[in-house]
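The authors assume throughout that readers already know how a fold can be written as discrete tokens. What matters is that the chain and its backbone geometry are given together, residue for residue. A single example would do more here than another paragraph of explanation. For illustration, here is how one protein appears when written out as sequence plus structure tokens.
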Amino acid sequence: YSAAMFHLFTHAFFKALLFLGAGSVIHAMSGEQDMRKMGGLWRSIKITYGMMWIGSLALAGIWPFAGFYSKDLILESAFAAHTGLGIYAYWLGIAAAVMTAFYSWRLLFMTFHGESRADEKTLAHVHESPKSMTIPLLVLAIGAMFSGVLGAKYFVGEHMAEFWGKSIFVMEGHNVIEAAHHVPPWVGYLIT
């Protein structure tokens, strides 16, 4: 439960960052939402571009971003449970992580790189979003970068017992979070 709550906490930052970043792209493109009509936008909306990279790296679980700490722990915990269901959940989680990384990179490359596929009228009006959108993007990006490393010791680390108090009870001998820190190295390497 603690790993799931930790992932919920970190995920809130990078997923909100990606959604607001998508809104910033749509705003820049005068309401256009079809990525097949985008491309080459990174030069025109550099703040949004940078924030989308941060959100995508965090979502993909790349170190040192927040998703690395929480997503990996969930998968390692599933493996460390040493049950058939846990191993099944681990492999499904690996498959989901691969698909997530694929669609994140697809989003970045189709939207921001390559030749533009937008019409001239839309391209003439492409602009960075106002501060009312870029400042929240920056705040969420800080969370997407640092919430994992800062929250790990409280949600799932050395201060876990004090942080959760009596709200989460872990039976002796069933501490999957502790066991997750001792999985074989290949389990962790496969995740990242």
About this structure: The longest helix spans residues 84-112. The CA atoms of residues 17 and 136 lie 8 Å apart.
